[in-house]
Amino acid sequence: MTVRVATLGFPRIGTRRELKTALEQYxxxxxxxxDLLSTAASLRASAWQRQKDLGAEIIxxxxxxxxxxxxxxxxxxxxxxxxYGNVQGKVDLGTYFAMARxxxxxxxxxxxxxxxxxxxxxxxxxxxxxxxxLVPQFAADQTFRLASTKAVDEYREAKALxxxxxxxxxxxxxxxxxxKCDGPAFDRLDLLPALLPVYERVLNALxxxxxxxxxxxxxxxxxxxxGNAAAVFKTTYNTLTAxxxxxxxxxxxxxxxxxxxxxxxxxxxxxxxxxxLVRAPEQLASILEKARPDLLLSLGVVDGRNIWKADLNALxxxxxxxxxxxxxxxxxxxxxxxxxxxxxxxxxxxADVKSWLAFAVQKIEELHTLARALNEGRGVVQTILAENxxxxxxxxxxxxxxxxxxxxxxxxxxxxxxxxxxxxxxRRPLQQASLRLPLYPTTTIGSFPQTTxxxxxxxxxxxxxxxSEAYEAFLREETARTICWQxxxxxxxxxxxxxxxxxxxxxFGEQLSGFAFTKHAWVQSYGSRYVRPPIIxxxxxxxxxxxxxxxxxxxxxxxxxxxxxxxxPVTILNWSFVRDDQPRAExxxxxxxxIRDEVCDLEKAGCGIIQIDEAALREGLPLRRADWQSYLxxxxxxxxxxxxxxxxxTQIHTHMCYxxxxxxxxxxxxxxxDVISIETARSRMELLDAFAAYxxxxxxxxxxxxxHSPRVPSxxxxxxxxxxxxxxxxxxALWVNPDCGLKTRxxxxxxxxxLNMVAAAHYMRP
Length: 766
Description:
Blueprint: E1 3-5, H1 18-27, H2 33-53, E2 59-61, H3 69-76, H4 93-101, E3 103-105, H5 107-110, E4 116-118, E5 123-125, E6 132-134, E7 137-138, H6 150-160, E8 165-170, H7 172-177, E9 180-181, H8 192-209, E10 213-217, H9 229-243, E11 248-252, H10 262-267, E12 272-276, H11 283-290, E13 296-302, H12 312-323, E14 328-332, H13 351-355, H14 360-376, H15 382-397, H16 404-411, H17 424-435, H18 452-462, H19 468-488, H20 506-509, E15 513-516, E16 523-526, E17 529-531, E18 535-541, H21 548-557, E19 564-567, H22 569-574, E20 577-578, H23 584-604, E21 609-613, H24 628-643, E22 651-656, H25 665-670, E23 675-678, H26 688-694, E24 699-702, H27 715-728, H28 747-764
Parallel strand pairs: 1-14, 2-8, 7-9, 8-10, 10-11, 11-12, 12-13, 13-14, 18-20, 19-21, 21-22, 22-23, 23-24
Antiparallel strand pairs: 3-4, 5-6, 15-18, 16-17
Helix pairs in contact: 1-2, 6-8, 8-9, 12-14, 16-23, 18-19, 23-24, 27-28
């Protein structure tokens, strides 16, 4: 039997974030489309060659994207909403980026005599990751056509470089299920007869170019599916395999177990099946028992979502009997899109912690080692296996991991620590009397633009080229200027701008014990927005106050309320690479106690409004509804532990962004925050329907404009959104704010948008 190594996808961004630079230069008008496309081609070539050199025998193409692979699929099948124009030919870069980021041009810029003002497509989280995808929009009479040949072009491109690849397509069923209805609801799967001919054309074109295999991702097979799913999948894959009978299809599932969809997956006339054995190792036995003998199994045995070394010896113990029975493919559990590229670039990382880690490059090396051991015997890689075992043992016994005081505090917690002194109806009048805010109070979510000057000052300080005194003076000047400007435009509740913060999670993790940080371990969040998730390797505690000094300085500049800004425990957990040697719930509780200490210190300093952002609450939700309650119980408890140490008059805010909340609205209510701000601009206040049906008990700040787009919405547009919101939520419970922080925006668009936002709030007041 033969064992081969495959990757399902590789990071797109480049080892030095070359894609980010190229995109932002293009968007700023400082480079041409040819420049951007040339950089993209170079990144693809480098990624293909690197995977080949590392020992991957099955290398993906069409896993690269300029912005988002779901948006690429929308472009491929011509699913372009009418708002972006009547696109007849190929979807060009202008249309593509208008869907991704919105578009706002004057008549002179456009050259057509008419101004254009187009919002971006709706964005939400990709399953339970921090990656954002652009949500496809479908009309009941939707038509599809081949509008992008990207998949074929990139296969041909790799072949010209001497590299045979396995093209990747997002499967048609998952594509439809991940989309939304534009207008009255209908069954999106009814669109399959119109959609499948486009997929047939793409598959035939790939076969004509010489492709033997195509990877079709159907991640929705790990979800709770509608009752007609079995028939829909069967019809879909009967159609596709019949249309291209000599092309082999590898059906890829990931992020969880097939569960009750296993029968569907195993019944399909595909030639291979990839399953995630990191998230769901228990499913292998049943799959082996029921799979056709000729079905090629691709086993996701190393973690494509986290950065810990795999236990190679333990994996070999499980794989050796299987490898004697059938051909296998070994792969990461999912695309390596969600991991940093190369650990070797981290020259300053603690040596012990570094020895416990594996990034994308190292994960392919792990797979290559496993394949060699299975094909040739363990002896050929004995040194590597011994080093792997030693690193795992060193991690297990390290004193850097365990803090008995932290463990005891979490284990001995009193349930009363997760309860405010009084219920919200009793707290609200105390907060109103203390804050004395007008109807429709205005605020922002926290951060203001981190300009080139801010980033340069931070980099200069990190390199030792700017003294700590000079750096702090610079930050204080930026903060003071931002506070004064907020007063000038008449915002009601101010923020200090967060110029001293590199990232909303990293900033706190750097001041907490149990965290490690990288310099180059970037992963994509959306488009050109990349993050470096902290690494939680040990027990978490707060050695000293983290934000109090900056809040005190900011409040000293103004008499208006200044929010204290914190990131919540669930978000810190979900946006970090989390230790895998204890339950996530325990790690979250440890973080919650650390944030609680900070909340109490802010209140002691005089802070009357404290925002504890839980942007990632929905993101951590298990993919199967049956598993939700357990997660929500400990996630909500963790937030409440962090927030419940204050007096009734102190107002606790939280913020959540770019997720569907309707199905967990009761859990959001159970968090017992006084004010929640949420993303609603892209969805045109659709999310508020759940808050009305549930009778959400507290106050709400529905985002009235989309900060992920440079577009500046008009006063009238924001007024329309507030009117829509006021039909659902009582006006005396409504706040007015953007839908997220403003860190990634530029000052001109930020100032214009906030001026319009304040004007809209004033218009709504009696």
